[in-house]
Amino acid sequence: MILLPGILDVAQQYDLTFHAKSYGKKETLCKCPFCHEDTKKPKKHYLSLNTDDNVYKCWYCKESGGVLDFEAKLSGKPYNAVKEQYFGQAKTTLHPAYKLNPYQLKRIGWQDYKRKSFNGFLQKREEVIKDWKQYVHDELVTHYALFLCIAHLENQDERRQELMTWFIRKCWDSPIPAMYDQIQDEFLKRSEALKSWALEGTELGRSAWRVCLKTMDLDLDALFLNILFLKFLAQIDDKKRHNPKQESVTEKVI
């Protein structure tokens, strides 16, 4: 029988700072390595480690999960790599839906469903992976648009560098593996060789930039909101194109 590592042992391995009086108890408190909001607050320890259930939760940033997810985030390794570290490689080829980690499943709304009904999850695995692929596509489109806008800021070298650093960190926090590398690779390609999400992202970025120029609001927050709003409108148009019957009903109601 393979035992999972203790969450307290993992925390010690990565030198987390513990609340001395709670150490070793069912709820052990320590400084959160994810949001760092308690770093400059000596009496605050926002991260709670449940040593009985082998789970963690930060009461400030709400980051949470099991021990394997915890180790993956602390080590920077992919979740599946940490899982293989304890269980070894699967002898049979797994369906891609089974390889999605809890953080990825949470992003597409399947984490709780898998917990409550694993058999149901198995039956819906095609739907799960379809949702994941759509999520990845949409995220890459949005972030590629944002990347282009940042990369093409003129006469603002210091500001561009600051925003790019923020963008890279945002990509690192994404559940999509190597998202920044994928975006950078597409950016270096010729336009005719771009993937579909990069082409969509290019058009989205241009549209968002034009809106900002018209309103004379070149702030990053405004730019990001424009990108999200235009992406939302594009999704509505796409649904209408794929469901003309629904569109005609809507028009009748209007």
TrEMBL record:
Residue ranges the record marks as coiled coil: none
GO function terms (MF aspect): DNA binding; zinc ion binding
Tree of life domain: Bacteria
Name assigned to this protein: Zinc finger CHC2-type domain-containing protein
GO biological process: DNA replication
Species: Lentibacillus amyloliquefaciens
